[in-house]
Design goal:
The complex is a heterodimer of chains A (316) and B (302).
Chain A lengths: L1 H24 L8 H11 L2 H11 L5 H13 L13 H36 L4 H15 L2 H15 L15 H35 L2 H8 L4 H23 L1 H14 L5 H10 L3 H29 L1 H5 L1
Chain B lengths: L5 H4 L2 H21 L3 H21 L31 H37 L1 H16 L2 H12 L3 H28 L2 H8 L4 H37 L11 H10 L6 H28 L1 H6 L3
Helix pairs in contact in B: 2-11, 3-4, 3-11, 4-5, 4-7, 4-9, 4-11, 5-7, 6-7, 7-9, 9-10, 9-11, 10-11
Classes of the chains: A mainly alpha (316), B mainly alpha (302).
Chain lengths: 316, 302
């Protein structure tokens, strides 16, 4: 097992390096002089400010040197300083990460609560009415733009029925009740699309498992169908689901960007969008780097978990 | 193995006839798969809307009538009026153009570059393969929407840059898919035959590998159009895609969000348009996939 994890981590190194190159090159895409593009015409007239930013970004040096410098600082936990408010970027990200993690976590739980039962029912009776309904729910979940769903939720539950507060964020340490009330709508907004994807995965992998011979054996022993499904089939059917969930982390972060914007949650996605509005590109670089690294780590975790549950992978 | 000579002796009209029978059978199979018919219908409707937008929309999508600002749905304005007095139905009809354009061109960019990279990767193998595939893994690690946002923001918000940005995020799908096909096609006998007669790498890739690797690419493309339309809507919603006053569904939702309490119809109808278009392309793609892969079709799993 240890060997497997080490091998898997070694494979990750070149990908991490390439990820850092992509994140860094965002600033190279800026048309013309990055310092001018970040400050805008107005502020750039202030020669002192302009030169200070050029020095800070090291724009007078060749691009590979700029990249290497940025990378080595990042490795030592220094992602630079925000152009907008002079805050160290690491600190800004650390502040904005907890709401995103909370949102993603609750969203994931909602997704599973929807996906597992519906997926099982669909798989047990493929091509039945129940399955049709399940498939339609999944297709709808995938096709609904979640920012639209969020807006509809706000209109229905906050404006029309006045059941929930429309938007905002409270630290769960200060007031857990209010925090959860505020999280209900964003978490559903984020969770439905994810639930649809996971549901389809559960359905197809469970159908596949149900056709295997050990299931026939279990039935032949005279076990009741629900024991066969939950006790025998589901265990194996959930293995590929783990991977799919691991792969959906990127989708969660992407969804969090829009969801946090709609519900005014001060999370990492919101930080990315705000930095883009303020042309604070050092922060943009750092946020997308952190998100990509987080996605890679979650994929690694899913792989390791997968290998742990299914020994065939480890020794394969 | 029996040698089939009949194919050589077919006349042109017979060939054409066979082609059409094949086509019709194929589309019947697409249609037979559940919900694909709905997908085809919706896709055709959206394409027709985009083509005929100038003739069928009741008003000019840019015309501002200040006497009816934020008016609700009525017989004069079926879906209501927006904050600048523009007819929402007309703007939704015209908005289909942006969605389709971005969807199709972004997927074209992603598929074009992705397929080329996948072919090179699969055909040459070795270090080149390793570099290309690791680069694709890296692109894949970024949340698509976040990467698209960052690229569009850096290049400057515009519809063209949104297409490029979304295309970049789609490249890994196509390169992985094509590489996989290329690897398996490479082992087949006719490829060996091509090598024996001394065909160049270029010729092998374009005439032997590519045609046989296209079917899954087409399925992937139709599914990715749906995703690209959603991403474009999200970009425009965040104010980084299509610039106003050009009508786009995401942009209309952005305005609708601001007027939600007084005029909910501003946000409801563009969302429905996005929803049905994306749903249509998804069903269409699923139907294509099942028609092209009979195993899936018979078992009913997908």
């Amino acid at each position: 097992m240890g060997k497997f994890i080490i091998r898997r981590m070694i494979i990750m190194v070149p990908v991490l390096l390439l990820v850092s190159m992509i994140a860094f090159s965002i600033i190279l895409l800026l048309p013309g002089d990055p310092a001018l593009a970040i400050l805008g015409e107005e502020l750039a007239r202030d020669k002192q400010l302009y030169q200070a930013l050029r020095d800070e970004l090291g724009l007078d040096r060749p691009i590979p040197v700029q990249y290497a410098d940025w990378l080595f600082k990042a490795l030592r936990g220094n992602l630079g300083i925000s152009v907008r408010n002079r805050q160290p970027i690491v600190e800004a990200i650390a502040q904005h990460l907890p709401p995103t993690l909370e949102l993603s976590f609750i969203g994931m739980i909602i997704a599973l609560i929807i996906a597992v039962p519906v997926g099982i029912i669909s798989a047990v009776r493929p091509n039945s009415i129940e399955d049709m309904v399940g498939t339609i729910i999944a297709m709808v979940g995938v096709a609904v733009p979640h920012f639209w769903l969020g807006i509809l939720f706000i209109y229905a539950f906050a404006v029309y029925w006045r059941l929930l507060p429309p938007s905002g964020y409270v630290n769960p340490m200060d007031d857990l009740g209010t925090n959860l009330k505020l999280m209900v709508m964003p978490a559903f907004t984020l969770g439905l699309g994810l639930g649809a994807v996971v549901m389809r995965q559960i359905r197809s992998s469970l159908i596949e498992v149900m056709q295997q011979e050990y299931i026939t054996t279990a039935r032949a022993k005279g076990l009741r169908e629900n024991v066969v499904v939950t006790g025998h089939a589901l265990k194996n059917a959930l293995i590929p689901v783990v991977t799919v969930i691991g792969l959906q982390v990127g989708r969660l972060f992407g969804g969090a960007v829009v969801t946090e914007t709609i519900f005014s949650i001060p999370g990492a996605g919101r930080l990315a969008v705000d930095s883009i509005y303020f042309r604070d590109f050092p922060v943009v670089q750092a946020v997308i780097l952190v998100m990509a690294v987080a996605v890679l780590i979650c994929n690694l975790a899913a792989d390791v978990l997968y290998a742990y549950i299914d020994p065939r992978i480890r020794f394969g | 193995m029996a040698v089939r000579v009949e194919a050589v002796e077919l006349t042109f009209s017979e060939k054409l006839n066979r082609f059409w029978v094949g086509q019709i059978k194929f589309w019947q199979r697409v249609n037979k798969t559940r919900l694909a018919g709905f997908g085809i219908f919706t896709t055709i409707v959206v394409i027709l809307l985009a083509i005929t937008a100038d003739f069928i929309s009741p008003y000019d999508p840019f015309y501002q009538d200040y006497s009816v600002v934020l008016a609700g749905p009525s017989s004069a304005h079926l879906l209501g009026v927006d904050d600048l007095g523009r007819d929402i139905l007309s703007r939704i009809i015209h908005g289909s153009r942006v969605s389709l354009e971005v969807g199709i061109i972004a997927v074209g960019v992603g598929a074009g570059v992705g397929v080329i990279l996948g072919l090179i990767s699969g055909w040459f193998g070795g270090a080149l393969d390793e570099i290309i595939m690791r680069a694709m893994d890296a692109v894949w690690s970024f949340p698509a929407l976040v990467l698209a946002l960052a690229i569009t923001a850096a290049l400057g918000p515009s519809i063209g840059n949104a297409m490029i940005a979304i295309g970049v995020t789609l490249m890994p799908y196509f390169s992985r898919l094509t590489r996989g096909s290329a690897l398996s096609i490479k082992e087949r006998d006719f490829v060996m035959a091509g090598r024996v007669i001394g065909a160049s790498d270029m010729r092998m890739i374009l005439l032997y590998i590519l045609p046989n690797a296209l079917a899954p690419v087409i399925v992937q493309a139709s599914l990715n159009i749906a995703g690209a339309i959603l991403t474009e809507a999200a970009l425009s919603f965040l104010g980084l895609g299509v610039r106003p006053p050009t009508p786009s569904w995401g942009g209309m939702l952005r305005v609708g969000y601001q007027y939600m309490e007084v005029a909910p119809w501003l946000a409801v109808f563009p969302g429905i348009a996005i929803f049905f278009t994306v749903l249509g392309f998804n069903f269409f793609g699923d139907g294509l996939r099942m028609a092209l892969d009979p195993r899936l079709w018979q078992r009913g799993t997908a």
